[in-house]
Amino acid sequence: MLRVAEQYVGTDTGRQRRANEDSMLARSPLFVVADGMGGAQAGEVASRLAVESFQRGLDDTADAERSLAAYARAANVSIHERSQANAEHAGMGTTLTAVYVGAEEVAIAHVGDSRAYCLRDGELLRLTDDHSLVDELIRQGKLTPEEAVEHPQRSVITRALGPEPEVEIDTRSYRARDGDVYLLCSDGLTTMVPDALLAEILLAHSRLRDAGEALIAAANEAGGRDNITVVLLRVEEVSIAAASLVDDPATLTGIPVLPANGSVEPMALAPSPARAAEDERAVSPRKPRRPSPSTLPPTRRRRLRRVIVAGVVLAVLVLIAAGVYVTAQSVYFIGTNSRGLVTLYSGFPYELPGGLRLYSKDYVSGFAASTLSAQRRKTVLDHSLRSEADAAELLRSLELEELE
Q1: Most buried residue among 136, 251, 330, 365 by CB atoms closer than 10 A?
Q2: What CATH number matches the domain at 2-242, 3.60.40.10, 3.20.20.105, 3.20.20.80, 2.60.120.1520?
């Protein structure tokens, strides 16, 4: 089965935009990128609403494609209703590319011109088709890829979440392999950096963080005409036994495990009482009893005590670690990421020796902490632990303040 072994999330306003209208979600095994559009910062609202629709995550037993499409349609309804109710948000919309890593396959839901790629065996494979005017013309043979780069209508998209009450969602699934690297990105990257250079940069960096930073830098060096968002994830294959935290439940409950050939010896019937008594008289002398700890030599008794103490200590540590892990999944705090953007984190705001972090990035907003007043920064970015609902509500109020 598959799991996400490494991930990176980064976003940048670019060199020609004043605000960042991109939003993203990286909550393994679910990853989402949305690129908003609309006047008066409405694009930020649209992309945020799209990402929020995926906050609940997917049930492991669900049909991934169907679930992703359902979340996307719910996002479309939410964005469309907001645009109809508020004149400042009229006509707003957003692209969407969502990826879910399942046990064997990667499922994708897609609308617009944000993209998903897979780097496999040194080759970069594009997994989505742009819903844009120039891509439609390329598919019809009326435009070459080279001509599309400088086409005056290259930014016109033909499908997005929000503008219409209903929207068609593209979904598909791909069989994943151990070592695959998946890239989700907004068009602020792909309009600045050609696919060949994307592949070259990914192949040149073994760490996803280094690769992601290099991709954003390349887009800015090429002009940075739009917001740039990059999400990278590497998957690895693990055995079911390694992925499980418990042993085979049949063994734990004392149910005998079947032999490799699947056959078992016939069960003997219980003997009658008379036959049992006769067998008992004919039985061979009893086997010697296992010595009790008190009869063991002193050296073996000390060794046994050490083993028992070590087992108890290990059990206590496991229980403590489990408690910390469970607690960390239910607490949140607000801080900033490496680019100064206000960010929602889950877990505790601490880092242990060896670089072990007790927190993970949950949601990256589209505005920088520098836009807040000094007093506001002091009260918001104090790393106070909050519930998910309280932290999300605070972050939402900050985003609304930015739009005023």
Answers
A1: 365
A2: 3.60.40.10
